[in-house]
Amino acid sequence: MTEKPAPPVAGLLLAAGGGRRLGGRPKALLPHRGRPLVEHAAGVLRTAGLTRVHVVLGARAAAVREQAELGDCVLVENPDWADGMGSSLRAGLDSLAGTGALAALVSLVDQPGIGPEAVARVLAAYEDETSLVSAAYDGVRGHPVLFGAAHWAGIAATATGDQGARAYLKEHRGSIGLVECGDVAQPYDIDTEADLGHLE
């Protein structure tokens, strides 16, 4: 029996944050539709067609492993999660080395308004390891974003603090393919107590 080749695009879910503005409640564990938010977010990637999903955990990682059903995902612990999203993005990209993935589709755990339709649109724009694609909302760049493997080293080198890939994307804005998703998704973040009303 021959092994199936690795899917070219892997899902990368950043779910390590400690929820500082939510009184220290990790966003991964916030309840949404009766389950932890991280479980919902991983399910969105799966439903969109991503068969390999890596989830970066940080704050209360042991509790997330215990409470969320993520058995079909690769769980990546980021011990430096408190340094910000940049460290989680680096940890996630590192975890994809050697998997055969040619691109990473990156999503954030705290954006439940972005569902499988938007993810599938960005995924469909993948061409090869040089691809650089972003969802857009009324023409404004947002998440998810797809990074071909040719960009990973450059992103890792510039991903610091809470910036994530922002500096790299700014530098390469002329190369980014924008995929309009404003008709199928809402890119709000769950950052503060007031935002909790978006959860169901």
Automatic annotation (TrEMBL):
Gene Ontology terms for molecular function: nucleotidyltransferase activity
Keywords, in A-Z order: Transferase
Transmembrane segments: none
Keyword Transferase listed: yes
SUPFAM superfamilies: Nucleotide-diphospho-sugar transferases
Keyword Transferase among UniProt keywords: yes
Source species, domain of life: Bacteria
Protein name: Nucleotidyltransferase family protein
UniProt source species: Streptomyces chartreusis
